[in-house]
Amino acid sequence: MISWRKHYKRSLIAIGLLLSATASVHAQSGDPKNGEKLFKANCTACHALDKQMIGPALGGVVERLQTEQNLGEDWLHKWIKDNKALRESGDKYAIEVYEKFNKVEMTAFPNLSDTDINDILAYTTNPPAPEPAAEAASDENTIAAIEKERKESANSKILLISLLAIAGLLLWLLLRLRQLVKLNQTEELTELNATRVQSFGELYQKYNLVGKALLGLLAVFALYGVWNFLMGIGVYKGYKPEQPIYFSHKIHAGDNKIDCQMCHSSAKYGKVSEIPSVNVCMNCHRSISEYNGKYMEPGKDKAFYDGEIQKIYQAAGWDPATQSYTGKTQPIEWVRIHNMPDFVYFNHAQHVVAGEQSIISAHNKKNPNDQIDVVCKACHGKVDTMNVVAMANDFTMGWCIDCHRTTEVDMNNGYNQAYFKNLHDKLKKQYPKSEGKITVDAIGGLECGKCHY
């Protein structure tokens, strides 16, 4: 009897090991590389391999499920394809998982084939080693750049010392020559020197008209300088302040192709393009807690970007460990870059909606080597290439007027067709040389009241 029990127990252990090994073999039968692509496309919004997010950590989920619940990959296939149907069938563990994660229903993936799911499970079991980032040598490049800068600095110092030495030598030679001239000066030369102009006053009296002309010319140059200085007040092209959270538009708008209006939504529907709230950031960063992109700005590493994401969590009061809001929020004090004077009226919606195609076309004609595809870039520059956003244009009155004089009104736009239905023919007669092309200045684009209260 005892022998039979021992034999039965050993058989159960063997069966358990066999099932575990079978699960591992099945998971390994998939393609981890393809599984990684599928996992990133379908699962990363809620799951990670090594930590709990909205859903549980999925690293080693096949073996863990087999060991803890005695469930195989077929259960995972059913859960992934339609977890709701699995719960409704009365599956105990499916209901338990649903209850454990706050009754957040997982998205069903009926479009994934059995092969796709096997590949995903293979990735969770044996994830391939991460490929080295294209910019992995950024640290080496930075070190090389620092060494190069040191060498250039040393060379500059040597050059400066050499120039000072040469200047000293020339001064010494000049003094020696002056002494020689005095020694060799004759009485005739002394008399000649007595007739020469000895002061600026004497020089001015001798060349009175020339002096007045020079003073007038200097006055003109001075006025021109003052005028340029006054015209430069409030013009901050190239201004790029340091922000409280490092936000790279190159990574978001460039590498990840996030549309401008996803964050600056009111640019299309309102006068002002607002600064997005932290809730907009959390739409994505609730499930993106670390930076895994290949691009690294020189001098910055993964730890730097991860730290900036943590600043967003602090501002939003988000606890990534519990996947919940704490209620302790902190305002983000962004530094404004573009700021119109109070006496200037500018409506973003008017330009983004009614003037979109016209502005893009006018910019591309005027700048054949700087083509744009989004209307925002006409004023704000190619933001999708900027790590730190800088003011790309002057934003002066003259700059705006020049745009109004060269930008054609899009008469194919549905709004303009209705609004300028009777005005279009009149404008053609009024501006016969325009060949039917009407610019913004012809429809009131230069009227003071359009932009000034």
Automatic annotation (TrEMBL):
Molecular function in Gene Ontology: electron transfer activity; heme binding; metal ion binding
Record's protein name: Molybdopterin oxidoreductase subunit, predicted
Annotated ranges, domain Cytochrome c: 30-128
Matches recorded under Pfam families: Cytochrom_C
The keyword Transmembrane helix appears for this protein: yes
InterPro entries: Cyt_c-like_dom (IPR009056), Cyt_c-like_dom_sf (IPR036909), Multihaem_cyt_sf (IPR036280)
Ranges annotated as spanning the membrane: 158-175, 213-236
Keyword Transport found: no
Keywords in alphabetical order: Heme, Iron, Membrane, Metal-binding, Signal, Transmembrane, Transmembrane helix
Stretch forming the signal peptide: 1-27
Originating organism: Bergeyella porcorum
